[in-house]
Design goal:
Blueprint (H helix, E strand, L loop, with lengths): L10 H13 L2 E6 L5 H11 L42 E3 L14 E7 L2 H15 L8 H20 L4 E7 H6 L1 H11 L6 H5 L14
Protein backbone atom coordinates (compact mmCIF):
# COMPACT_ATOMS: atom_id res chain seq x y z
CA UNK A 1 0.00 0.00 0.00
CA UNK A 2 1.37 3.39 -1.03
CA UNK A 3 1.38 5.86 1.85
CA UNK A 4 -0.10 9.29 1.10
CA UNK A 5 2.59 11.92 0.69
CA UNK A 6 1.57 13.77 3.84
CA UNK A 7 2.25 10.61 5.89
CA UNK A 8 5.80 10.41 4.55
CA UNK A 9 8.36 11.48 7.20
CA UNK A 10 10.01 13.75 4.63
CA UNK A 11 6.78 15.39 3.53
CA UNK A 12 7.02 18.45 5.85
CA UNK A 13 10.61 19.05 4.73
CA UNK A 14 9.67 18.73 1.06
CA UNK A 15 6.75 21.12 1.47
CA UNK A 16 8.91 23.69 3.26
CA UNK A 17 11.61 23.36 0.60
CA UNK A 18 9.06 23.86 -2.18
CA UNK A 19 7.64 26.89 -0.38
CA UNK A 20 11.11 28.41 -0.01
CA UNK A 21 11.89 27.80 -3.68
CA UNK A 22 8.64 29.50 -4.67
CA UNK A 23 9.73 32.57 -2.73
CA UNK A 24 13.26 32.71 -4.12
CA UNK A 25 14.01 35.67 -6.35
CA UNK A 26 15.47 35.34 -9.82
CA UNK A 27 18.95 36.78 -10.16
CA UNK A 28 19.60 38.51 -13.46
CA UNK A 29 22.85 39.76 -14.93
CA UNK A 30 22.16 42.52 -17.42
CA UNK A 31 23.75 45.38 -19.32
CA UNK A 32 24.68 46.35 -22.84
CA UNK A 33 26.28 43.70 -25.05
CA UNK A 34 30.04 43.52 -24.34
CA UNK A 35 29.68 45.24 -20.97
CA UNK A 36 31.05 42.35 -18.89
CA UNK A 37 27.90 40.30 -18.38
CA UNK A 38 29.58 36.99 -19.22
CA UNK A 39 32.37 37.72 -16.75
CA UNK A 40 29.85 38.43 -14.00
CA UNK A 41 27.98 35.21 -14.82
CA UNK A 42 31.26 33.31 -14.46
CA UNK A 43 31.99 35.07 -11.14
CA UNK A 44 28.57 34.16 -9.76
CA UNK A 45 28.88 30.54 -10.88
CA UNK A 46 32.31 30.32 -9.27
CA UNK A 47 30.80 31.82 -6.13
CA UNK A 48 28.26 29.01 -5.91
CA UNK A 49 25.15 30.39 -7.63
CA UNK A 50 23.72 28.02 -10.20
CA UNK A 51 23.46 29.53 -13.69
CA UNK A 52 20.52 28.90 -16.00
CA UNK A 53 22.20 28.20 -19.34
CA UNK A 54 21.81 25.81 -22.26
CA UNK A 55 25.38 25.79 -23.65
CA UNK A 56 24.10 26.33 -27.18
CA UNK A 57 26.44 29.28 -27.72
CA UNK A 58 29.89 27.97 -26.91
CA UNK A 59 33.10 29.78 -26.01
CA UNK A 60 34.98 31.45 -28.83
CA UNK A 61 37.73 34.03 -29.39
CA UNK A 62 35.48 36.87 -28.23
CA UNK A 63 34.48 35.08 -25.02
CA UNK A 64 37.07 32.38 -24.29
CA UNK A 65 35.41 31.48 -20.98
CA UNK A 66 31.92 31.16 -22.42
CA UNK A 67 28.81 33.27 -22.90
CA UNK A 68 26.57 31.71 -20.21
CA UNK A 69 23.47 32.24 -22.32
CA UNK A 70 20.01 30.71 -22.33
CA UNK A 71 18.41 30.96 -25.75
CA UNK A 72 14.81 31.10 -24.52
CA UNK A 73 15.39 34.49 -22.91
CA UNK A 74 15.41 35.99 -26.41
CA UNK A 75 11.71 35.11 -26.74
CA UNK A 76 10.73 36.43 -23.31
CA UNK A 77 8.09 38.71 -24.81
CA UNK A 78 6.13 35.61 -25.86
CA UNK A 79 7.63 32.84 -23.71
CA UNK A 80 7.86 33.39 -19.97
CA UNK A 81 7.36 29.81 -18.80
CA UNK A 82 11.10 29.28 -18.25
CA UNK A 83 11.17 31.91 -15.50
CA UNK A 84 9.84 29.41 -12.97
CA UNK A 85 12.99 27.33 -13.47
CA UNK A 86 15.10 30.45 -12.91
CA UNK A 87 14.08 30.87 -9.25
CA UNK A 88 17.14 30.62 -7.05
CA UNK A 89 19.42 30.74 -10.08
CA UNK A 90 21.08 33.40 -12.22
CA UNK A 91 20.33 34.07 -15.87
CA UNK A 92 21.75 36.57 -18.34
CA UNK A 93 19.32 39.00 -19.97
CA UNK A 94 20.42 41.95 -22.10
CA UNK A 95 19.15 45.35 -21.03
CA UNK A 96 16.73 45.70 -23.97
CA UNK A 97 14.72 42.70 -22.72
CA UNK A 98 14.36 43.69 -19.07
CA UNK A 99 11.07 45.49 -19.77
CA UNK A 100 9.46 42.14 -20.58
CA UNK A 101 10.00 40.69 -17.10
CA UNK A 102 6.56 39.87 -15.64
CA UNK A 103 5.67 41.48 -12.29
CA UNK A 104 4.70 38.09 -10.82
CA UNK A 105 8.31 37.36 -9.79
CA UNK A 106 10.88 39.10 -7.62
CA UNK A 107 14.21 39.88 -9.24
CA UNK A 108 17.69 40.89 -8.19
CA UNK A 109 19.42 42.57 -11.11
CA UNK A 110 23.18 42.98 -11.37
CA UNK A 111 23.59 45.63 -14.05
CA UNK A 112 27.01 45.85 -15.64
CA UNK A 113 28.49 49.18 -16.67
CA UNK A 114 31.56 49.71 -18.84
CA UNK A 115 33.29 52.68 -20.45
CA UNK A 116 31.41 53.33 -23.70
CA UNK A 117 34.51 53.49 -25.95
CA UNK A 118 35.44 50.01 -24.75
CA UNK A 119 31.96 48.63 -25.42
CA UNK A 120 32.00 50.06 -28.95
CA UNK A 121 35.52 48.77 -29.63
CA UNK A 122 34.63 45.29 -28.34
CA UNK A 123 31.45 45.15 -30.41
CA UNK A 124 33.34 46.31 -33.49
CA UNK A 125 35.98 43.63 -33.06
CA UNK A 126 33.30 40.97 -32.70
CA UNK A 127 31.62 42.11 -35.92
CA UNK A 128 34.94 42.07 -37.76
CA UNK A 129 35.61 38.50 -36.64
CA UNK A 130 32.19 37.51 -37.93
CA UNK A 131 32.81 39.19 -41.26
CA UNK A 132 29.96 41.65 -40.70
CA UNK A 133 29.97 45.44 -41.35
CA UNK A 134 31.55 47.15 -38.35
CA UNK A 135 31.03 50.81 -39.24
CA UNK A 136 27.39 50.93 -40.31
CA UNK A 137 26.67 53.50 -37.57
CA UNK A 138 29.28 56.09 -36.47
CA UNK A 139 30.58 55.64 -32.93
CA UNK A 140 29.22 58.96 -31.71
CA UNK A 141 25.70 58.13 -32.84
CA UNK A 142 25.89 54.61 -31.45
CA UNK A 143 27.20 55.92 -28.13
CA UNK A 144 24.36 58.45 -27.90
CA UNK A 145 21.80 55.71 -28.65
CA UNK A 146 23.27 53.38 -26.04
CA UNK A 147 23.50 56.08 -23.38
CA UNK A 148 19.89 57.11 -23.94
CA UNK A 149 18.80 53.48 -23.76
CA UNK A 150 20.72 52.82 -20.52
CA UNK A 151 19.25 55.95 -18.91
CA UNK A 152 15.75 54.76 -19.81
CA UNK A 153 16.43 51.26 -18.48
CA UNK A 154 17.86 52.57 -15.19
CA UNK A 155 14.82 54.81 -14.73
CA UNK A 156 12.51 51.87 -15.43
CA UNK A 157 14.36 49.60 -13.00
CA UNK A 158 14.12 52.18 -10.23
CA UNK A 159 10.35 52.32 -10.66
CA UNK A 160 9.75 48.55 -10.33
CA UNK A 161 8.70 47.49 -6.80
CA UNK A 162 9.61 43.84 -7.46
CA UNK A 163 13.15 44.54 -8.71
CA UNK A 164 16.26 45.30 -6.68
CA UNK A 165 19.28 46.50 -8.64
CA UNK A 166 22.98 46.86 -8.01
CA UNK A 167 25.32 48.50 -10.53
CA UNK A 168 28.79 47.11 -11.11
CA UNK A 169 31.55 48.68 -13.21
CA UNK A 170 33.47 46.24 -15.38
CA UNK A 171 36.37 48.71 -15.49
CA UNK A 172 36.58 48.87 -11.71
CA UNK A 173 36.27 45.10 -11.35
CA UNK A 174 39.28 44.69 -13.61
CA UNK A 175 41.27 47.04 -11.39
CA UNK A 176 40.31 45.33 -8.12
CA UNK A 177 37.65 42.64 -8.15
CA UNK A 178 37.34 42.04 -4.41
CA UNK A 179 35.25 45.05 -3.30
CA UNK A 180 32.83 44.40 -6.14
CA UNK A 181 32.61 40.69 -5.40
CA UNK A 182 31.88 41.59 -1.78
CA UNK A 183 29.22 44.08 -2.90
CA UNK A 184 27.49 41.46 -5.04
CA UNK A 185 27.73 38.90 -2.27
CA UNK A 186 25.99 41.26 0.19
CA UNK A 187 23.37 42.07 -2.43
CA UNK A 188 22.58 38.38 -2.83
CA UNK A 189 22.44 37.58 0.89
CA UNK A 190 26.06 36.77 1.81
CA UNK A 191 25.91 33.21 0.51
CA UNK A 192 28.65 33.30 -2.14
CA UNK A 193 32.32 32.33 -2.07
CA UNK A 194 33.98 35.69 -2.55
CA UNK A 195 37.53 34.38 -3.02
CA UNK A 196 36.38 32.16 -5.88
CA UNK A 197 34.56 35.10 -7.47
CA UNK A 198 37.66 37.28 -7.27
CA UNK A 199 39.71 34.59 -8.99
CA UNK A 200 37.54 34.78 -12.10
CA UNK A 201 38.45 38.36 -13.07
CA UNK A 202 41.13 37.79 -15.70
CA UNK A 203 43.11 40.85 -16.74
CA UNK A 204 44.38 38.95 -19.78
CA UNK A 205 40.87 39.13 -21.25
CA UNK A 206 40.66 42.91 -20.80
CA UNK A 207 41.54 43.53 -24.44
CA UNK A 208 39.76 46.80 -25.22
CA UNK A 209 41.20 48.86 -22.40
CA UNK A 210 40.94 52.61 -22.91
CA UNK A 211 43.06 54.75 -20.63
CA UNK A 212 41.19 57.80 -19.36
Amino acid sequence: MVRPMLECPLAPFLLVRKSLMNNEPITIVSGLPRSGTSMMMKMLEAGGLEALTDNIRTADEDNPKGYFEFERVKQIEDDKAWLEDARGRVVKLISALLKHLPPSYDYKVIFMRRAMPEILASQRQMLIRRGEPADAVPDDKMAAMFEKHVAQVESWLAAQPNIQTVYVSYNEVMKDARPHAELVNRFLGNTLKVDAMVGVADAALYRQRRER
